[in-house]
Design brief:
The protein is mainly alpha-helical. 76% of the residues lie in helices and 0% in strands. The termini are far apart.
């Protein structure tokens, strides 16, 4: 499923004028950012301890924010700042 999502995002970004390599990077980061959502939802819907829930949320937010921040930087063209 996530590979299908990644491919679809690549095609969307390419149709919008992005270079294929850049589109591949953005799509990969977006998928990395959301791939743990099902795990998080499972933890939240099961009878887990508060500590387990908090650990899951922390882990999800760390992983997702890093990947999604990177996707945002590329989309907004911020990934090239300071490279000159």
């Amino acid at each position: 499923m996530f590979e299908d999502i990644r491919r679809k995002l690549v095609e969307v970004f390419v149709r919008e004028g992005r270079a294929r390599l850049e589109a591949e990077k953005i799509a990969l980061y977006v998928v990395q950012g959301v791939r743990d959502v099902p795990k998080l939802l499972t933890v939240l819907t099961e009878e887990e301890s508060d500590a387990e829930i908090l650990r899951a949320i922390h882990s999800f937010l760390e992983d997702a924010s890093t990947a999604l921040d990177r996707a945002r930087e590329i989309l907004l063209g911020l990934d090239h700042q300071g490279e000159n």
